[in-house]
């Protein structure tokens, strides 16, 4: 699919999110605020379901992982110890003609992705030409165009990686110049020098200006876990290895906030810090890497839609790092990071605070600062991945069309819609009775307005997996029609069995078993 088509698809998804009550631009009556969004009625239901699914998978199913909800405001020394005050920077570059600001590293990554797209197009073209006889592995090894583009990507990647490692801003600009990267607004290649930009938001705390002090909106949720490490370990009586999970907001003054809710200045993380014995961290890193990929697969993502991407440059705290990337309409991008953070954070906080953050291991009879393996999911990004993955415009056998959001049933904002076929003959009263019974266990929706087909289409568009229709036969034999969103097939189900049938179809445990 061409880049133009994928961008068109993405614009349709953005429009759909607003039209059907998933995402609204923040402060829209005042023309909005850049890169800030509000979760609308169906959006907040989906987001809550997603975070609860992660929370249950992480804490309820792991007896050695407990939860925490740390405050957004923290002592400013926290961010000095963690390195954020001195090192939480992104390389910034401006186009002199459009005055538009970019992240230099993202410009280079996007340029590399375009070359990789050329390789994919060569493969697709050959696959169509040769059909079942096509040998993809051999084609990738022998095709001149593929080999030339691979060599180009590898050369850029090597330069890019070294520039990042050396913090060589001049080289980053030179790569942009050599790749002839142009501003998407002006088309100009007239760039400023690359400079570093700290991403933290600061504010003042204190009732009087003279007494106030600078604090920061947290740029990540992890530090709240680290400073509470011993409190949690002692009160929950956990032995290493154990984890602390948290869902919370973080704030970054992004240079380029773009691609809808993918990169925003206010976002939510679902993360878990897993504390391990030094020397075992790489084993746990490998285990959590596979476990987290397996979890993402349960969201209904195709195998080809997810991949691992090893970091070209490790953060100052890490000895290993990998991203799980999802194939958005704008390319493969990170939705989760798995990092081996060593003992950096706990040691830094121990040194800065003067308080010991060590664990006494009864098995080895020694005290040590644990190592940490981190899994950090972007809640907003995973939400967007679910929408992109599920959004479909389908042409039906009868020539009509429908828009459907094929979300996993256990995550859908509305699980069941209950419709009386007509607004008379006692059907609304019977439908209300069924609705009132089901609503104790599931988020339900009731509607009488319009033809039944239109009501089905509205439910398809917001991802409701099942619709129940109450008709005259219901009054005769206590059965209803249960319609499946994905197949559009209908079956008669007795009211006696209805609750059990519905519960089984929307059970969150099905995804994890």
List keywords for this structure.
513 residues, Rossmann fold, 40% helix, 5-stranded mixed beta sheet, globular, alpha+beta, BirA Bifunctional Protein, domain 2
Description:
The longest helix is centred in the first third of the chain and has 27 residues, at 104-130. α2 (41-60) packs across α13 (379-390). Helices cover 40% and strands 24% of the residues. It starts with a helix and ends in an 8-residue tail after the last helix. The strands form 7 sheets. Strands 3-9-10-16-13-12-11 form a 7-stranded mixed beta sheet, sandwiched between helices. The chain has 2 domains: 1-72 and 217-395, Bira Bifunctional Protein, Domain 2 (BirA Bifunctional Protein, domain 2); 400-511, Rossmann fold, CATH 3.40.50. It is globular. It has 513 residues and is α+β, with helices and mostly antiparallel strands. β14 (359-361) and β15 (366-368) form a beta hairpin. It contains 17 helices and 23 strands.
